């Protein structure tokens, strides 16, 4: 997905995180995975010096 859509659109490559089984009825588990994915992306951005 990243190599196809991102490169095709010419967007600068960054960090991608997927939330698997997001259709789960366990909203707490989905929320925990969402926060973990967000933290992964934010850490990658901060490590690259893109955001403060």
Textual characterization of the structure:
The chain is mostly helical and 52 residues long. Helices cover 56% and strands 0% of the residues. It has 2 helices and no strands. It has helices at 2-9, 27-47. The longest helix has 21 residues, at 27-47. The termini are far apart.
Provide keyphrases for this structure.
single chain; 52 residues; mainly alpha; 0% strand
> What number is the mean pLDDT?
78
Order of helices and strands: HH
Overall spatial form? flat
Tell me the β content.
under 5%
Measured distance between first and last alpha carbons: 28 Å
Q: What is the tally of helical segments?
A: 2
Which structural class do you get from the secondary structure elements? mainly alpha
Which residues form runs of ≥5 with pLDDT under 50?
none
Number of DSSP-assigned strands: 0
Helicity, as a percent range:
55-70%
Radius of gyration, in Å, reads: 13 Å
Largest sheet: number of strands, sense, barrel closure? none
Summarize the structure in short.
This protein has 52 residues and is mainly α. The chain contains two helices and no strands. It is flat, with a radius of gyration of 13 Å.
List the helices and strands and how they pair.
Layout: H1 2-9, H2 27-47
């Amino acid at each position: 997905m990243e190599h196809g859509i991102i490169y095709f659109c010419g967007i600068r490559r960054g960090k991608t995180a997927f939330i698997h089984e997001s259709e789960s009825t366990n909203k707490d588990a989905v929320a925990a995975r969402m926060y973990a994915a967000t933290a992964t992306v934010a850490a990658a951005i901060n490590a690259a010096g893109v955001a403060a």
